[in-house]
Design brief:
The chain is an alpha/beta fold. The chain is built from 11 helices and 8 strands.
């Protein structure tokens, strides 16, 4: 890669990043594409808006992609404490006003999938399409489900993290003894190594606990409004098991489930082909 190309690429990334003002906070967003349908996208825990850049080729013709970085993620400067469903709904309203749109689509990956499911009751009458990528909130492995973790466990976790060296030594032993999987071991090392990362986890986990979706209501609204839904799952996903497919699609009139030969990390260049196929093929009940 030439220096000139690298410089141009970095400049393009800077120019594509901007901020929304919300109360006392600044919400980082990235906007791509020229399609008629506005697509608001939510990333997963520890990611940021830029994670969706790699799937631009499959989206930018049909959609104008508007991806935000959640509170405590990316370059978002969040000053409101814990965030709520109402906060996210109000941020979406700001996006609709900014883009001068009445209708739009939603896309969410992992934790962002749970947020997406929670936004459907707020905006069902305005939604054209929903894309879910390994979404949390339907059925999650117990070790990764913040809603299922008891308070005593979270308090113990906080106590252990006050002594990070001891915590990581214990983590390494549990991995060595095969009590922790490689995915969970890597997740722990990558997301709890610094004080900032540890603070982010507890602020976000306390916020997202209030985002448990009402799946029955979500399905009723998707059917009532005839909203097309695409669900993408990894066959080897340790976090969101493939059984989420039939659980979610049962009873839905316009839902297509795609199983990919991957783990939880679904968003990569290869995902473009699957998304393009989903957009071109009308969704139908399984």
């Amino acid at each position: 890669m030439s220096k000139a190309f690298f410089f141009f690429n970095q400049l393009q990334l800077i120019l594509e990043t901007d901020f929304l003002r919300y109360k006392n906070s600044k919400i980082e967003f990235r906007k791509h594409g020229t399609g008629n349908t506005l697509l608001v996208a939510f990333h997963g825990f520890s990611d940021k808006a830029a994670i969706f850049d790699i799937i631009r080729p499959s989206l930018e013709k049909d959609f104008t992609l508007f991806a935000i970085s959640f509170p405590y993620h990316g370059a978002t400067d969040w000053q409101e404490g814990h965030f709520t469903k109402n906060d996210i709904a109000e941020i979406i309203q700001l996006i609709l006003q900014k883009e001068k749109k009445e209708r739009f689509a939603l896309m969410g990956y992992s934790m962002g999938g749970k947020v997406t499911l929670n936004m459907i009751p707020f905006f069902a009458e305005k939604l054209e399409k929903v894309i879910l990528l390994a979404p949390d909130g339907i059925k999650t492995h117990p070790l990764y489900d913040v809603n299922a973790l008891p308070d005593w466990y979270m308090n113990l976790f906080k106590t252990l993290l006050k002594a990070p060296k001891l915590f990581f030594k214990l983590t390494k032993l549990l991995y060595k003894w095969r009590i922790l999987s490689k995915f969970l071991y890597d997740f722990t090392i990558n997301h709890f190594s610094t004080e900032q990362q540890r603070k982010r986890f507890f602020y976000v986990s306390a916020s997202i606990k209030t985002f448990k979706p009402d799946l029955l209501k979500v399905k009723q609204l998707l059917n009532q409004q005839q909203i097309s839904t695409s669900l993408f799952l990894g066959k080897r996903d340790e976090v969101i098991p493939p059984v989420v497919g039939p659980i979610f699609s049962e009873g839905l009139e316009r839902c297509k489930v795609h199983y990919l030969p991957k783990g939880h990390l679904l968003i990569d260049e290869e995902l473009n082909d699957s998304i393009s196929e989903s957009i071109e093929t009308p969704t139908a009940s399984l």
